[in-house]
TrEMBL record:
PANTHER family: ACYL-COENZYME A DIPHOSPHATASE NUDT19 (PTHR12318:SF0), TESTOSTERONE-REGULATED PROTEIN RP2 (PTHR12318). GO terms for molecular function: hydrolase activity, acting on acid anhydrides, in phosphorus-containing anhydrides; metal ion binding. It comes from the Bacteria. Keywords: Hydrolase, Magnesium, Manganese, Metal-binding. InterPro entries: NUDIX_hydrolase-like_dom_sf, NUDIX_hydrolase_dom, NUDT19. PROSITE patterns: NUDIX. Its cofactor is Mn(2+); Mg(2+). This is NUDIX domain-containing protein. SUPFAM superfamilies: Nudix (SSF55811). Residues 17-214 form the Nudix hydrolase domain.
Length: 241
């Protein structure tokens, strides 16, 4: 009989990536930029004990909560480029909203604007955020990169990496206390500081891209190139959106 892949290998290869989003918060109030990172809990199946940015998979409610301000049109356009499945502004918005929600759940930081009418949600993720009296502000988010987890693992994500200046965090000095244990040992770190940490390989690639972006004369702009990384024919491919 001809050789065939084992059942576990076929199953691992068949795992479809799930849409996810990450938010990199950058502080510029010191000698060099600092970013927020935390250590993932040892009990997680995906990237345990590694330092990462806040983020996670997209939830259906992320497309239903109304933001205070929409995405910049150029950021929205790039998010829809090569989107798996039907591309739409609503799905693009959902990605950015997921980044803001996950950041709030894991760190207590609110990226949003105060309002007298924050709205309501039955979502366990959005209800506590809206109770702070804010609506999400998508306008300052910049789109840095996209990466798809290679086949072979128990989980795969199609992750979009957003960047926001810490000036847009409404409660930078007094984050809301949350029950999440997703990120432990949260720290503000310079890119040089991260060299001594245990990081996922893709996180090191993203940090390198971030450093290059921050060094540009105009800094992070909505029309800046977006790096798209994924595996094709067992090779790591780096494209530009």
């Amino acid at each position: 009989m001809p050789a065939t892949d084992s059942a576990p290998e076929r199953h691992a290869a068949a795992v479809r990536p799930r849409d996810a989003a990450t938010l990199i918060i950058v502080r510029n109030d010191a000698a060099e930029p600092r970013i927020l990172m935390g250590k993932r809990h040892a009990g997680h199946r995906f990237m345990p004990n590694l330092f990462v940015f806040p983020g996670g998979r997209v939830d259906p409610a992320d497309c239903r909560v109304a933001p205070a301000e929409p995405l910049h049109p150029e950021v929205e356009r790039k998010l829809m480029a090569r989107m798996r499945g039907p591309a739409s502004p609503l799905r693009a918005r959902g990605l950015a909203m997921a980044a803001i929600r996950e950041t709030f759940e894991e760190t207590g930081f609110v990226i949003g604007r105060p309002t007298d009418r924050p709205g309501h949600s039955r979502s366990a993720g959005w209800a506590p955020y809206l109770e702070t009296g804010h609506r999400p502000d998508l306008a300052p988010l910049r789109y840095l990169a996209r990466a798809i987890t290679p086949p072979g693992g128990p989980k795969r994500f199609d992750t979009r990496f957003f960047v926001v200046d810490a000036r847009h965090v409404a409660n930078l000095e007094c984050p809301v206390e949350t029950d999440s244990d997703e990120l432990l040992d949260r720290h503000w770190l310079s890119i040089a500081d991260t060299e001594r940490l245990e990081l996922p390989a893709i996180t090191r690639k993203i940090l390198s891209l971030l450093e290059q972006a921050l060094d540009r004369p105009r800094g992070m702009t909505p029309d800046a190139p977006v790096t798209f990384q994924y595996v094709r024919a067992r090779k790591w491919v780096v494209d530009t959106l």
